[in-house]
Amino acid sequence: MDIETYLSGFDKAEKINKGMARDDKYRCRRGREEYLLRVADGEDFAEKRNEFEHLKRLSEAGLPVPKCVELVKNDDGSKVFTLLSWVTGEDLEGVISIISASEQYEIGKQAGSILRRIHETCPETGTEKNWYDRYAETINPRLDAYRNEGVPFAGFEKILKYFDANKHLLRERPMCHHHGDYHTGNLIIDSGKVWVIDWHTMDFESFGDPWYEFNRLDTKYPEFAKGQIDGYFNENIPEEFWRLFALYISVSAITSIVWAKYFAPDELDNILRLNKSILTIFDDMENPVPKWYR
C-alpha cells in the first residue's frame, strides 16, 4: 500500500506544506468527516506509536486534542500512516494580534489549565535517570560549546552564573509526558475554545520536568503569557517556578548562539538580541519574575 492507495480511500485529500516536521501532512475528507493524515518513514514507527498512544490517552481523558483514528504501516514497512480527526478553528498565532488584551489573558488561562491537565494525566514513572541528570547530559555540552566558541555579549557571564547558582533546583523535580512545543502556533481557537495540535516534537524524548514546557512560552503577547502561567497554577505560583523559569528561558537562549553561528548565521543577530532582552526582563538575572509579569 503506497500513499496514493491510502489516499484513494478519501473523497478528497489536500497536501499541507505548513510546519517544520519531517512528516508529509494531508487534510482529508470522507463524507462529512475531516481528518489529518501524517505520513512518516517506517523507521519512525516506535516513535509514532508512542505519540499515538499518548494522544489517545489524553483524548479519552476528555482533553481538547485530536481524536486518534488509525496508526498503520504500509505493506513493505517503509511508511507509517497516522490518521487523526481534523481540528477546526483558527491558528491562534495568526489571530492573537487582533484579539484584545483581556481576551488574550483569558485564552492564556485556558491554555495554562489545559497544559496542567496534560501533565496530570500523563505522569512519568519508572525512568532510570532523574531530571537533573537528563537535563545536564544535554545542556552541559551546549554550555561548554558556548564558553569555548560562543559570541560574547554584555552580561553573558551573568546567565552562566545564574545557571550554576540554581541548577540544584533541577534535582528531585517530577517528570511527566510533554507536549514538546506548547506555544500559540500549536493552539487552535474555535468559538473561544482552545484545542492543542502537533504532538510530534521529541525534545528530551517528550518527557521531563513539567515546568520545562514553559521555555516555549510566547512572551511576545504578555497578557497571554501571564494568563498561561496563572491558569496553570490557579494564580498560586510557587517561587521555585520563577527561578526555574528564568533558568530554562536563559539557558535555552544562550545555548542557541553556537547553533546559530554555524547553522543559521542569518539568525545570529536576532538570537543575540534575545539574550540581551532576557538580561533586561530578569534585571540582569537578579529577579526571576520577568518584568512583563510584574
Structural description of this entry:
This protein is of the alpha+beta class. About 45% of the residues lie in helices and about 15% in strands. It has ten helices and ten strands. The longest helix is centred in the middle third of the chain and has 21 residues, at about 100-120. It is globular and about 60 Å long.
List keywords for this structure.
294 residues; alpha+beta; Phosphorylase Kinase, domain 1; Aminoglycoside 3'-phosphotransferase, Chain: A, domain 2; 2 domains; five-stranded antiparallel β-sheet; three-stranded antiparallel β-sheet; 10 strands; 43% helix; 16% strand; globular
Overview in brief:
With 294 residues, the protein is an alpha+beta fold. It has helices at residues 3-7, 45-60, 92-95, 101-121, 131-149, 156-166, 222-233, 239-254, 256-263, 268-281; strands at residues 12-16, 24-30, 33-41, 68-73, 79-85, 90-91, 176-177, 187-190, 193-196, 207-208.
CATH topology of the largest domain: Aminoglycoside 3'-phosphotransferase, Chain: A, domain 2
Write down the CATH class of the largest domain: Alpha Beta
Low-confidence stretches: none
End-to-end separation: 57 Å
Structural class designation: alpha+beta
User: Averaging pLDDT over every residue, what do you get?
Assistant: 93
Give the spatial strand order of the biggest sheet: 1-2-3-5-4
Number of domains: 2
Number of strands: 10
